[in-house]
Amino acid sequence: DQRLLDELKQRNIPPIEDCCEAHGATYGDRRVGSMGWASNFSFYYAHHLSTVEGGMVCTNDDELHEAIRIYRSHGMVREASQQATKDHYTSEHPDLNPDFIFAYPAYNVRGTELNAVIGLNQLKRLDDNNNTRTRNLKLFLNGLDPAKYQTDFAVEGSSNYAFTLILRSPDDILRERVERTLRELKVEFRRGTAGGGNQLRQPYARQRFGEEYKNYPFTNHVHFYGWYIGNYPDLEPEKIGQLCKTLNTL
Known about the structure:
Layout: H1 2-10, E1 16-18, E2 26-27, E3 30-31, E4 38-42, E5 55-58, H2 62-71, H3 83-92, H4 113-123, H5 126-143, E6 162-166, H6 172-184, E7 189-191, H7 203-209, H8 217-225, E8 226-230, H9 237-248
Parallel strand pairs: 1-4
Antiparallel strand pairs: 2-3, 4-5, 6-8, 7-8
C-alpha cells in the first residue's frame, strides 16, 4: 500500500513489483506494474496473456532499461538502445570487438517476433477474459463452505489467475480427502499454491536463511493446507458449482 511505498522511499529502497500473475489488476486507481522502480509480467502459456513462453520487464528508468536490454541478450553491449552506452564501453575496452563486448554474465532471454504476434493478439482479449475470470472467482468463493475453506480474501482490484483453495483450519484428514477428490475429478492443482509453497523451505533458501521459514505461521499453513486450481475464461460456471458442492461434502 502507500505506506509501504512511502517507507521504501524514505529508506532509499527501490520497489520492484512482481506482477507475473496479475495482468490488469489494480491497486486503488493505479495499475499494478506502474508503481515500482521496475515490474515484471510473465507470459507463460497458462497466464492471463501468453506468448507461449517469455515475459516483460517494465521501467521508466533509462539506466535500468539499458541494463535490462543488455542482460536479455547474453549481456552484449550492442543490444543497448543508446549510442552513448555503446560508445562508453567501446572507449573503455579498445581491445575488444565492439560487436562482442559482454558487460554482464547473462543468458539469451529475447522474445521472438512470433511471440510478439501471439501476445499482441491476446492483448485485445485481455480485459474481457479478466472479467470472466473475476466472475469465476466470485462463483468459487460464494460456493465454498466458509466453515471449511477460507473465502474472505481481499479481492478488490485483483485479476484472478487461479482459485486459491485454503483450509480454514489445519486438518490432515480433510487435506487428504481434498487431494484425492481433485485427482479423481481430474482437476489439476498445485499444493502450497503457486511455486512450491513457502519458498523459505526450499533448498536454495534454507542454505542461506536456515530455519527462518518457521517464523511465518500463515505461510506455512498455506504450504501444507492450500492449493492452486486453474481459473480460465473457458471454464463453465456449472463446473465451478459442481466442484464447490463436492468440496463442501468432504
